[in-house]
Amino acid sequence: MGDELAIRSTHAVLPDGERAATVTVSDGRITGVLAHDAAVDAAEVVDLGGHALLPGLVDSHVHVNEPGRTEWEGYASATRAAAAGGVTTIVDMPLNSLPPTLDPASLDAKRDAARGRAHVDVGFWGGAVPANLGRLHALHDAGALGFKCFTTDSGVPEFPPLSWDEVRAALAELAAFDGLLIVHAEDSATLAAAPAVHGKAYAGFLASRPVAAETRAVARLAELVAATGARAHVLHLSAAEAVAEVASARADGVRLTAETCPHYLTLAAEDVRDDATVFKCCPPIRPGANREVLWEALADGTIDCVVSDHSPCPPALKRGGFASAWGGIASVQLGLPVVWTQARARGHGLGDVARWMAAGPATLAGLRHKGRIAAGCDADLVAFAPDAEWVVDPATLHHRHPLTPYAGRQVTGAVLDTWVRGRRCDHRPGGRLLSREAA
User: How far, in Å, are 217, 360, 379, 413 from residue 432 at the CA level?
Assistant: First the structure.
């Protein structure tokens, strides 16, 4: 019996480079990566011509907010947006939903909310807060891919931060079973000493989240990871100075990784208009010179992956100025073209983007069958037109509230089609709920 699907492309982005190939699929898995002109016995053959074939992206930093705050976002809308943007797997953050994912029962609640609604595959992070320290192994065994904590206020009262002593305790607990701690790393004492936000100017908000808050937190985290022998990951790295802390720790053998986000790689503080709260996120978008250091850190491997930190909210919560507006950018549908636009301008290829946005996040989350076009991997595939130019229109976005700082921005690269485990994404949910894979 032949394969169910074969996709030909003169530009298939493979782990060992970009070349012409035919990819065959059966039972949701890639069965072969063949020569472009190979004879195939498949029920459906798709010829992309000169368009690229990418591995499906893995976005390991998505706030779906369901259950409990489904008016902010939900599995149906978030995953439909993901599929439209070439993202075939998301990993949902443990907070902003009610209840937060802090124990097996709340993980079950997440799964129940997502079941039958997801258009792409969905994994789940657990949370680490003061109240569940010492009980993280149960959530690990229930299938959580790792554990998120904050070192400063999370923005929601039901997910309090850890003190540095508690971070150390969490790392020691996770080290016993090689669990992963993913950390919103800003130092609360430094933030408390920073000037309060006043007025409409973005400069005031930027001053309230200083570079030192990130740099000190990353340095302290690196010390604790080294002391405990645990694994940790720095979320949404925005500050150039913190890059050096990550690089130094890794040079010393510390098991510390880091990510950044499309908005930090694309936008610049100088371009944010006063009271343009659609740009508000924490840590903040910093000046253009800072942005270039992040690109250098991606190029040299200090930063491992690029993920959205999709953090949507209703429009009303973005009103009221930088002091009170919700801090979050919704971009799960736009990450690929936004990053590709900037990457190609700096001489990077699609292979680099696939490493940062597919293979890197898959490795972080321990999803061994995701993020690569290779035999045995899930057939998560994206047809991509790398030269297509278009202007971002919020009306075309699928997440629940189409607020975006990219509105009106010209980008390059368009997603033409998306397959999740060999199934072409359409308007029918068909995503699978993922658990931690055995080593």
Answer: 36, 20, 13, 27
